[in-house]
Amino acid sequence: MSGKAQLILDAIAPEFSRRVLHDEPMTKHTSWHAGGPADVFFTPRDVMDLTAFIRQLPERVPLLWIGLGSNLLVRDGGVRGAVIATHGALGALERESATRIRVQAGVACARLARQCVKWGLGPAEFFAGIPGTLGGALAMNAGAWDGETWRHVIDVEVVDRHGIRRTRTPADYDISYRRVRGPADEWFLSANLFFERKPGANEAAIRELLERRKQTQPIGQWSCGSVFTNPPNNHAGRLIESAGLKGFRIGDASVSDKHANFIINHGAARAADLEALIEHVQRTVARVHQIELTTEVRIVGEPA
Ligand SMILES: Cc1cc2nc3c(=O)[nH]c(=O)nc-3n(C[C@H](O)[C@H](O)[C@H](O)COP(=O)(O)OP(=O)(O)OC[C@H]3O[C@@H](n4cnc5c(N)ncnc54)[C@H](O)[C@@H]3O)c2cc1C
Questions:
Q1: Is 249 part of the annotated catalytic residue set?
Q2: pLDDT over 90 percentage in the chain
Q3: Is 19 annotated as catalytic?
């Protein structure tokens, strides 16, 4: 066991130190399949278990929350501190009233989309193309096809570093395209969402949207979706393509031939290759177009 993991395990209550994973490869928990180990990796049983874990964790131990790791680049040196995984843990999805549902953070967006269709609620089809959790979608204000997560939020339940839970409304956040700023050191446990009644909703619309996506994006290859946000009135993909970068490769990472805003791990790319390619794309686009691309993907952890 690494010394860093041992230090954390020594500091946490035995009921948890027996259950957490240590030196857990983050390659297993990210859609890019790259990145070093997390010192400690915890999947809670439920919200009570999660808040109990946070309360007994020494405050000096940093926390990283993850959903399905579909927007994360974990560097090769891994994550110091504790990773909290919500998928497979916070999975409740309930209808509260005719147009209002309660969704826990670990629910996959695709499940949310399908369930809304079954309930005759919409528009929620856009969630079907987002391969993450509701928690990640709240953190990112994820969106697609004119839909955006926070347009549907009534309120959210959050927990802070002391395990204290509270309810917040959208007014507590600064929300824009793929960006959500709120109180520091708080994480999403669940949300109340509203949709309109859409009695004719059926899964054909979801299938059609996914089919359209397959035509234009390298679905099925290891990626994190769009690497960069679109600059105002522009498209990152078009800027990258017209800078001649489609297919550009560093190690086993390359700019997708199908959609230039996707970077593919062909199997053996290290996080350092992916990050070097991200920086190369930024430098080239800045030189060719005088536009600074900002990463949508969250880059975390330590270099090797
Ligand atoms: C093939 C592909 C297609 C994609 N298409 C789209 C798209 O159309 N639109 C789009 O918006 N995105 C898209 N993405 C990106 C990604 O799916 C979204 O950003 C998604 O919302 C991330 O969710 P996640 O659960 O995987 O989050 P993670 O990648 O696990 O985490 C992302 C960020 O959210 C934080 N976070 C996670 N859970 C919580 C929580 N409970 N509380 C607080 N913070 C949390 C993490 O700390 C991290 O900073 C795509 C990705 C892939 C691989």
A1: no
A2: 97
A3: no
